[in-house]
Amino acid sequence: SYEVTQPPSVSVSPGQTASITCSGDKLGDKYTCWYQQKPGQSPVLVIYEDSKRPSGIPERFSGSNSGSTATLTISGTQAMDEADYYCQAWDSSIVVFGGGTKLTVL
Amino acid sequence: EVQLVESGGGLVQPGGSLRLSCAASGFTFSSTGMNWVRQAPGKGLEWVSYISSSSNTIYYADSVKGRFTISRDNAKNSLYLQMNSLRDEDTAVYYCARERDYGGNSAFDYWGQGTLVTVSS
């Protein structure tokens, strides 16, 4: 079965750029989404179709996908961005989530 | 305003059954594919099942195939998940999630608050 892999944790200083990767076989041939989940809350869609932002998501969130790696980039990271982030792709019609990355802003 | 409200969670013994519901409002439910996604305590997200707007297309994760049944009632704007032969590893918060079609590609753009299912003797 298809799998996508994320680093368990990423740390970033406030105001700096955070990059969270998601790797999978020929992932660049698939569309990926990214979700943000804060403690005790439901996930929130922050990126769809590799690089598009839903309404209400700040411009500092961006995404890319090429080769075997998709990347979520948060520019000018703020304390409020501290959360778990999950990438998601499709393998045929089956949904696949990455294991999640805990972003720490310190 | 789009709202998804899950209910039906609780404590159940291994081998038991439970039926989850998700009440939808604020959008045309009958035109939208829906999903169930679960999250075990302290773990990541795991997709469980998908149902198309007309119930013509249904998919399941291998981990629940043959034990769980997804269904919907468009007249009641409701989504369901019948869970049978429950196992300890099914313990999780279960979310219903709306699947928005962006023209051939989709994403889960709205999620409910989740309902906790605990399988334990």
Features:
heterodimer, A: mainly beta, three-stranded antiparallel β-sheet, B: 121 residues, four-stranded antiparallel β-sheet
SSE run of chain B? EEEEEEEEEEE
Percent of residues in helices of chain A comes to: under 10%
Shape of chain A: globular
- Strand percentage of chain A: over 45%
Low-confidence stretches of chain A: none
Q: Which two chains have the most extensive interface, and how many residues on each?
A: A-B, 25 and 24 residues
| Structural class by helix and strand composition of chain A | mainly beta
Please identify the oligomeric state.
heterodimer
Radius of gyration of chain A: 13 Å
User: What's the gyration radius of chain B in Å?
Assistant: 14 Å
Which stretches of chain B are poorly predicted, pLDDT < 50 over at least 5 residues? none
Strand fraction of chain B: over 45%
Rounded mean pLDDT of chain A is 96
Main beta sheet of chain B: 7 strands, mixed
In whole angstroms, the N-to-C terminal distance of chain B is 40 Å
Order of helices and strands of chain A: EEEEEEEEE
The number of helices of chain B is: 0
Structural class of chain B: mainly beta
Terminal CA distance of chain A reads 36 Å
Main beta sheet strand tally, sense and closure of chain A: 6 strands, mixed
